[in-house]
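Tip: read the tokens left to right.
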């Protein structure tokens, strides 16, 4: 199962990007959808998550700048990224957790220039 992530690109510091990720409609019982990122030479880190009930979590480094949302009926999750910083540069991966499984997207590159 492949999640389709899109929306990455090159942006100047202070700019905005919106990432989206769609999971196949045959994935059921989704508990949590989220975004992770991995910068060169660093471990993959959690950016934000949202539960099926709408509860959200943000890493301290993105609080107040990023916003996660989803459309449960469409199995789609979004990440609105504002006030981007060069340290936000990374490959961003979407993730879907169900009762039984954990699915990952192929990653989308976000590059923030100073």
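Filled-in amino acids:
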């Amino acid at each position: 199962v492949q999640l389709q992530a899109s929306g990455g690109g090159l942006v100047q510091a202070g700019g905005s990007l919106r990432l989206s990720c769609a999971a196949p409609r045959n994935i059921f019982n989704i508990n949590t959808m989220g975004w992770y990122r991995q910068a060169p030479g660093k471990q993959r880190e959690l950016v934000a998550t949202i539960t099926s009930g709408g509860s959200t979590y943000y890493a301290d480094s993105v609080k107040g700048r990023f916003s996660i949302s989803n459309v449960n009926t469409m199995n789609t999750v979004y990440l609105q990224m504002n006030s981007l910083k060069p340290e936000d540069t990374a490959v961003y991966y979407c993730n879907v957790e169900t009762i039984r499984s954990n699915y990952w997207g192929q990653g989308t590159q976000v590059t923030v220039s100073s």
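Residues 67 and 80 are 5 Å apart (CA to CA). The radius of gyration is 13 Å.
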